[in-house]
Amino acid sequence: MTDKPKVLIVGAGLAGCLLARLLGRTGHDVLVCEAREDPRESDHAGGRSINLAISRRGIDALERAGLRDRLLEKAIPMPGRMIHDTLGKSTFQPYSADASHAINSVSRSELNLLLIEAADEHDCIELRFGMRCSNVDHEEGVVEFTSERDGSTCTEQADIVVGADGAGSAVRAAMERANALESTQDVLEHGYKELTIPPVESGPHAPFAIQPKALHIWPHGAEMMIALPNQDGSFTCTLFWPYKGERSFESVQPENVKEFFRLHYPDAGALMPDLEQEYRENPVSLLGTIRCAPWHVGRTVLIGDAAHAIVPFYGQGANASFEDSVSLAEHIEQGADDLPRAMERYFKDRVEHANAIADMALANFLEMRDHTGKRWFRYKKKLEQFLHRTLGDRFIPLYEMVSFTTIPYDRARRRAARQWRVVSVVGACILVLLCMVVYGLAMMPDLLFANGPS
Ligand SMILES: Cc1cc2nc3c(=O)[nH]c(=O)nc-3n(C[C@H](O)[C@H](O)[C@H](O)COP(=O)(O)OP(=O)(O)OC[C@H]3O[C@@H](n4cnc5c(N)ncnc54)[C@H](O)[C@@H]3O)c2cc1C
User: Fold this and answer.
1) Quick check: 451 pLDDT over 60?
2) Cα–ligand 1 centroid distance for 399 (angstroms)
3) CB within 8 A of 19, min separation 6: which ones?
4) pLDDT tens-digit map of 102-147
5) pTM, whole model, 2 decimals?
6) Angle at 290 between CA 62 and CA 358, to 5 degrees
7) Model confidence over 398-431: pLDDT tens digits?
């Protein structure tokens, strides 16, 4: 036993396990209770087969837990986007002026497994599986659980209860029932469905069917598909399509999906032997943004998607959740003598940044599906990278700040807007000067003539 506060974490997902590991390293007693079965025993890690792009923020957070190298061993770096057009032609767009900057594709279930194993390395951390949280007494720090195996119930008590139980958080619901927070949920008119491009035996990128060192995008305006590489040579493709309308999950039925792909995703469709079966069998899942405030009441506090679920278009949900884990661990460590105040500080430190990345993720959806395929977009990215190379830290593109620095999200967003204002004003001044020079040159013969020999 230690004299540090005992922490009960609900949810052994990404944020919960990282927080456990960080607190375990500083000697806290931590109990982690997870609704799913232990993925180490059940042969699959549960959850969807999503793969994630982990960028600088996530890597930094994992580094603090001594897990950076273990993460990178499981990851495939993606230094840019590969844009596919409807004729099957593809164009590479680097993410950064610095060719060494890459986001990293990693399987969410493998990353979760890594984190569960890392948490379990500490004697002061106990992990229990098959326990679903059903209610929380925030003042007493008592959590009620129902066993997923036999329906029996039990309670656990701690000094701090952390809701790390994802977008559908039961802990957040308990806070709402106690009128302790307000939340909003905005569901997108687009859902997502996963498909696979399997490995190949031969070809220029074998075992990968297409270039592995890129995040592939098929941008089609109202609908799009992306694909991220996996270490076994496959790609996880995700369709982001509207539920209804002309080109939607409703209008494209399994019987005609092959024809639809032949017309609109010809290069990808040719690499998907199980397209019809996967399209029929794989579910369409919801996408949305959840915001709430405050993230704490009594002894309870929220982290990760439980506090701020965002749409996945900036690839930052897990990265932001990892930042929460680091921030909360630091506040708990430093503010142990006044835990309610420590939780309030944590909330105040994080909330505006969570809101900022939620907005940027929504904006990036439009950018990915509508703009990435356009020529002006490529020129804009080239201009940004030119300005960054020329001006260094005086001009850092927004994508660069979000993905390859740890500048807090809201600060990055404000700074990007400020930079563009300056560039626009300077650009306009240069244009005016150029016009004046051109006008002056055009007038030169007249002036010479006017001042010529009389
Ligand atoms: C399609 C898609 C693509 C994405 N791509 C990216 C990406 O590229 N980059 C990125 O950074 N992020 C991405 N994300 C977001 C990322 O997956 C989440 O932000 C991240 O998983 C949040 O971590 P978390 O620990 O808060 O929640 P979760 O990972 O959801 O973990 C919550 C845990 O709580 C458990 N749980 C739930 N309810 C209970 C209960 N009542 N009692 C006990 N346990 C419970 C769950 O079983 C789970 O283990 C993507 C998300 C989606 C949907």
Assistant:
1) no
2) 23
3) 7, 9, 162, 164, 303, 324, 325, 328, 329
4) 999 999 999 999 999 999 999 999 999 999 999 999 999 999 999 9
5) 0.93
6) 60
7) 999 999 999 999 999 999 999 988 888 888 888 8
Question: What is the rounded distance in angstroms from the CA atom of residue 400 to the CA atom of residue 384?
Answer: 10
Tell me the average pLDDT of the chain: 94
What b-and-e string marks burial along 29-55, b requiring 16 or more CB atoms within 10 Å of the CB?
bbbbbbbbebbeeeeebbeeebbbbbb
* Residue nearest ligand 1's atom 3 by CA: 312
Measured from CB, residues less than 6 Å from any atom of ligand 1 are 10-16, 33-36, 50, 52-53, 108, 132-133, 164-166, 170, 192, 238, 304-306, 312, 315-319, 321
Rounded to the nearest 5 percent, the helix, strand and coil shares of the chain are 45, 25, 35
Choose which CATH entry (1.20.58.100, 3.50.50.60, 2.120.10.30, 3.30.390.10) describes domain 7-78+103-186+288-365. 3.50.50.60
Strand, coil or helix: 11? coil
How far is the centre of ligand 1, averaged over its atoms, from the C-alpha of 14 (Å)?
7
Quickly state the pLDDT bin for 447 (edges 50, 70, 90): low
Amino acid residing at 302: L
Per the rule left: phi > 0, alpha: psi between -120 and 50, beta: everything else, 43 is left
